[in-house]
Amino acid sequence: MSGSQRSQILAALASVFGDSASQLGSAELENELKPAFVARPKKVEQVQSLVRALRPLVLSGDCKLAIRNSGNRGSYFPGSVSADVQEEVTIDTRRIKGIKLSDDRSTVKIGAGERWSSVYAKLQEYGLVVAGSPDGNAGVAGFLLSGGLSILSGETGFACDSVVEFQVVLASGEVVRANTEEHADLWRSLKGGLNNFGIVTSFKMKVFKSGPIWGGTAYYSPEAFMELLHWACVFAEDDSDEHANVSCCIDYRSGEKDAWCEMYHTQGKEYPPSLMPFMETQPQMEEDCTVHISTQLKLSKYWSSAIESACTNPRHLSASITIKGCMVSVLEDVYEEWEKTLEELKHIIGLSFTLGFIPLTKSMLKKSAEAGGNAMAIPPSDGPLFLAMVHTVWEGPTHDSRVFEEIENLMAVCRRLVGGKGHLHRFIYGSYAHHEDDVIAGYGRESVSRLRETSKKYDPEGVFQKGSPGGFKILYHYPVLP
Ligand SMILES: Cc1cc2nc3c(=O)[nH]c(=O)nc-3n(C[C@H](O)[C@H](O)[C@H](O)COP(=O)(O)OP(=O)(O)OC[C@H]3O[C@@H](n4cnc5c(N)ncnc54)[C@H](O)[C@@H]3O)c2cc1C
């Protein structure tokens, strides 16, 4: 950065804060980028002033403007959320707080920087739940702008489908509310639209009455995994219980493999028929099973601590594909390829390597459509689908290139195998995507052209397209899949 760029940026930041530069703590790969300035606004007006002050510099190419929230749960590769050394300013929305229940207790307004556990704690006082992250420590903004898969997905669609209003600071610095009545195009585009349209400062979401929730994790010997995949296919095909939610995973950690299923019944029905096969599959480590009657808050805290103990090393990489239909043999193909990659990576210090299958049922996709649709635009008739997600954690930079290479290779092989059998779906879930994936193109041609129109209308100069590094961008995505 030249001296003149630096002083222009400092002047712009000083006009809002006086003094603003500091360093962030987050995933190690992100930290290595060390943005020159981190602005941590607390109020919408400060975000507005920041955008107004920095916009001319972004447009002249003198400054990049990155947006981040908690940044510790998904986007952990270089350049994903922070600006890099050359690029200058990161706007960190973590201090934008506030959780306010509407007088009629039908919606809650949540500041972008809240964590889900705080939201659950507040709603629990009123016997309410919301479609937030199973992980209480995850940030609200990134989760909802990526789509969001919650334990309520069977009832509500993606988490973003419960958002009735976004408050957004646009590229012009104007603050708008996007809902079904005002800026409905922006409202729909933001549901899965990531950081493409502005800086979201709050979300108004529908809330739901809830009693206790039955859920937790059951653990198995790895040889049970094939049977679990069979039951996962039966569950997704059957699609008879919208209150039930399950994902099936296998992981390698500390030299050992374990299979596990995370399952929930949001109406608190213990051992519901839809989830019984997962409870009965053997060999199971029954003494480790955590499935019990609980609350959204307690389950989310438990899940956060499980994630934290599993992810002690800060270098993370996710990648995923979406599989169409419920063919066990297709899921098994992906599992076999994961096993082969594991053999290549096993020697890496601190390796934790997970493969997860997450069903997106037809009824879940129907709920998204009924809620007004979203940027991901998956027609219910495409369901049921499975997200096949790979998550890798390792230690130190020595093995970075080996991990990146192996994971890229694994995903390419899986795409070829699944695609060869006619089961590859265009969708790639943003929160589990590899940074080189074409997430936006995976939303499909019609949706991409709608998103482009929205971007042109609300950000005609392309501030958030050209000037905001990280995430997955709309205007420069080509080709678009059908
Ligand atoms: C172990 C693990 C488990 C997970 N489990 C789940 C799960 O069960 N379900 C699920 O759906 N996801 C899950 N995730 C993904 C996680 O929820 C996402 O990574 C989420 O984006 C984190 O939210 P954040 O607010 O910290 O966003 P960040 O990581 O800070 O940002 C994510 C993206 O959103 C943009 N962004 C952030 N804040 C704003 C804002 N205010 N305005 C505009 N753009 C913004 C950023 O620029 C970036 O592109 C998991 C991830 C991990 C590692």
From TrEMBL:
Entry-linked InterPro entries: FAD-bd_PCMH, FAD-bd_PCMH-like_sf, FAD-bd_PCMH_sub2, FAD-linked_Oxidoreductase, Oxid_FAD_bind_N
Oxidoreductase among keywords: yes
An annotated Gene Ontology molecular function: FAD binding
Organism per entry: Daldinia eschscholtzii
Keyword Flavoprotein: yes
SUPFAM superfamilies from the UniProt entry: FAD-binding/transporter-associated domain-like (SSF56176)
Domain of life (superkingdom): Eukaryota
Family note: Belongs to the oxygen-dependent FAD-linked oxidoreductase family.
Protein name per Swiss-Prot or TrEMBL: FAD-binding PCMH-type domain-containing protein
Keywords per UniProt: FAD, Flavoprotein, Oxidoreductase
Domain FAD-binding PCMH-type: 31-210
